[in-house]
Amino acid sequence: MMKKVVIVTSSPRKGGNSETLARRFAEGAEAAGNHVRLIAVRDVKLQFCTGCLWCQSHDKCVLGDGMNDLYADFEQADVLVFATPVYYYSVSGQLKTFLDRLNPLFPRGNRFRDVYLLATAADEDERAMNGAVSDVQGWIDCFDGVRLAGVLRAVGVTDKGEIADTDFPDQAVAMGQGV
User: Fold this and answer.
1) What pLDDT is recorded for position 28?
2) What average pLDDT score do residues 97-113 get?
3) In which band, very low, low, confident or very high, does the pLDDT at 84 lie, cut at 50, 70 and 90?
4) SS3 24
5) Do residues 31 and 175 lie in contact, with contact meaning Cβ atoms separated by under 8 Å?
6) pLDDT greater than 90 at residue 64
7) Under 8 Å CB-to-CB from 88, ≥6 apart: which residues?
8) What's the mean per-residue pLDDT of the chain?
9) Average pLDDT over residues 116-138
10) What distance in Å separates the CA atoms of residue 27 and residue 22, rounded to the nearest whole number?
11) Beta bridge mates, 85
């Protein structure tokens, strides 16, 4: 059965390591017959959430940036994927702001049930990802029936493109094929 998969890459570097994982996950998901939408946070012209909660009684956010064009895609997706570089043992600020701006999804009848996290870090220890996993799990916990279906912890990659010399991109393809 074809699934709708929305992948968000929050790397500020075009072609960065976490974005490479996002693209490879997309390849795997498409090869398995799924419909994939890839979104780069840096292209959204993202503003910070003001906490006004206007979105809880309207079908969009009061802010006039690119987020309003994305909410329907998220609501109708079966699978969500978040790719992030890990900075100071947490998701990137770009991803955190993006997750905050998904607040209009809270009162909706969303289809998504599975969420994946693709994380990259210079640190060699997989525990360096625990904060990022906790960040995404905290967002997931706000939605009934949604689970963290998989985490790819790509450690030991610092320089842009360095991930190509590892098996992490192949792991992302395999994870995408399994959605």
Assistant:
1) 98
2) 93
3) very high
4) helix
5) no
6) no
7) none
8) 96
9) 97
10) 9
11) 120
The overall pTM is greater than 0.90: yes
Spatial neighbors of 115 by CB under 8 A, at least 6 apart, are 79, 80, 81, 82, 136, 140, 146, 147, 148, 149
CB atoms within 10 A of CB 128: 19
> Where does 11-161 show beta strands of DSSP type E?
35-40, 79-85, 114-121, 147-155
Q: Is 145 left (phi over 0), alpha (psi -120 to 50) or beta?
A: left
**106, pLDDT greater than 90:** no
> Contact 118/172 with Cβ under 8 angstroms?
yes
Largest CA distance in the chain: 48
**Phi and psi (nearest 5°) for 164?**
-65, -20
Q: Whole-angstrom Cα distance, residue 111 to residue 133?
A: 22
| Pair of tokens at residue 156 | 């030991």
pLDDT of amino acid 1: 85
CATH architecture of structural domain 4-177? 3-Layer(aba) Sandwich (3.40)
Q: Would you tell me how many other CB atoms lie within 10 Å of the CB of residue 160? A: 15
